């Protein structure tokens, strides 16, 4: 196998990361697999493992890109405005895929998951922007909304 330069490796890595991010944001984290990445790039799994030794390493592709997506949808004028903006954001595919990942990772990895840092960051923003509200209570409300939305539970389903 021909060796490539470090610069070419980094260029390839950036391109593969962009593909991973696109798949994740449009289809969900569960679609980010070696098979799918192989299909998109035309590379063998063994070649991809040179960039991502395990499928857990795919997370590097989304690092630093998730929170801006979340923040771009939210308004912090008041607790009610935040809740309404969250509900509206749940209709956006990319926001929804991010929330699906948070829920999946919370279940699979608990306090060890990478999403914990993001939730703590959101809590800090809520504390800063809505100092009269309990940040933990707001986060619990928002993620309760997320879970019920992802499960298709609404007023009609409960009637």
From TrEMBL:
InterPro entries: Homeodomain-like_sf
Pfam families assigned: LuxT_C (PF18285)
The organism's place on the tree of life at top rank: Bacteria
Designated name of the protein: TetR/AcrR family transcriptional regulator
Origin species: Vibrio agarivorans
């Amino acid at each position: 196998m021909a060796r490539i330069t470090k610069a070419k490796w980094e260029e390839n890595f950036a391109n593969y990361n962009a593909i991973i991010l696109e798949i994740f944001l449009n289809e969900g984290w569960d679609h980010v697999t070696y098979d799918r990445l192989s299909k998109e790039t035309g590379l063998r799994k063994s070649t991809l493992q040179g960039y991502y030794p395990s499928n857990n390493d795919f997370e590097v592709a989304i690092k630093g890109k998730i929170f801006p997506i979340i923040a771009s949808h939210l308004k912090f004028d008041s607790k009610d405005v935040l809740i309404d903006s969250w509900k509206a954001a749940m209709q956006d595919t990319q926001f929804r895929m991010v929330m699906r990942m948070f829920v999946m990772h919370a279940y699979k990895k608990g306090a060890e998951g990478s999403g914990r840092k993001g939730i703590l960051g959101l809590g800090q923003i809520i504390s800063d922007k809505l100092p009269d509200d309990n940040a933990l209570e707001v986060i619990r409300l928002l993620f309760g909304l997320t879970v019920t939305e992802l499960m298709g539970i609404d007023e009609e389903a409960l009637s």
